């Protein structure tokens, strides 16, 4: 039975991993790990209700483990950066810049916006505290978010994207240069 499962699922698992990793060789290695796990658990397979779901859960878990280990090793390699006070200053500077932008709104509203953005206060509770309709606050929050985001890009931080268009880092804006998003 295990041999049939391997024949049936090896290509499917490999394609599943390649789509997520964008690395054929790494996907091949992880596929082998997953197939080994299936072989090691052969005695339990008869009690599995949905074999497809179980195999894809094993594959997903292996992918998650790999990603977690990769992040941990990257953190270990970058430990010197974490300890570098200039890195902390950089993050503190970005945080301070964001807070400054938000605090420029009316006093009571800026504190509520900070709490809404950080998740401390729901939008409904903020609307009650301001004595305005919930829909009005939602519109204001959306407008403030857009404004804060645009000012953040122009005044605080340039976003750095990977090949997939995902934000992977940012760097402080040099106030002497013309502003634009990378």
List strands and helices in order, with pairings.
Blueprint: H1 2-21, H2 24-40, H3 51-77, H4 79-83, H5 85-103, H6 107-118, H7 123-130, H8 134-156, E1 157-161, E2 167-172
Antiparallel strand pairs: 1-2
Helix pairs in contact: 1-2, 1-3, 2-3, 5-8, 7-8
Describe the structure.
The chain has 182 residues and is mainly alpha-helical. The chain has 2 domains: 2-77, Rna Polymerase Sigma Factor, Chain: A (Orthogonal Bundle); 84-172. The chain has 8 helices and 2 strands, in the order ααααααααββ. The chain has helices at residues 2-21, 24-40, 51-77, 79-83, 85-103, 107-118, 123-130, 134-156, and strands at residues 157-161, 167-172. A two-stranded antiparallel sheet has the order 1-2. α7 (123-130) packs across α8. The longest helix is centred in the middle third of the chain and has 27 residues, at 51-77. The radius of gyration is 24 Å and the shape is elongated. The relative contact order is 0.06.
